[in-house]
UniProtKB/TrEMBL annotation:
The organism of origin for this protein: Arabidopsis lyrata subsp. lyrata
PANTHER family the record matches: CYSTEINE_HISTIDINE-RICH C1 DOMAIN FAMILY PROTEIN, PHORBOL-ESTER/DAG-TYPE DOMAIN-CONTAINING PROTEIN
Species lineage: Eukaryota, Viridiplantae, Streptophyta, Embryophyta, Tracheophyta
Keywords noted in UniProt: Repeat
Segments forming domain CRIB: 49-62
The protein, known as: CRIB domain-containing protein
Entry keyword Repeat: yes
Keyword Cytoplasm: no
InterPro entries: C1-like_sf (IPR046349), CRIB_dom (IPR000095), DC1 (IPR004146)
Amino acid sequence: MEIKGHDHHVGNYGGYLKCDACDDRPYSHGIHYCADCEFTVHDKCVFVFSTPETFEHRSHVGHCLKLLTTGAPDHTDQKCHICGKNTKRLLYHCSICKLNLDIDCMVDDMCARARTSEYVVVPSSSTLA
């Protein structure tokens, strides 16, 4: 299975693993696992990968944030700049400002924009890193 934003092939897995999107563990089926980097995501969390690969967050106007599935780059603060929680492996990142947002804060913003029609989509062909 190919997951947008993840560089490796992700296969099905039948054991108990912690999901990198929701941090939940109680699933023994419906899990997708990357043997190359040990990335794990539940079926119920795959929707995160249908969100735009690059996204403009209203707290960070002027630069787009890009979805990363391998954790925050080493040269950045590992915490979300909005809520202060550790970003884990799945996050949105601004390479210009070295800023990180966790998935919960991004999804909350996407839902708020959908309700108010303020959704800004940037083409995935963007060359942001």
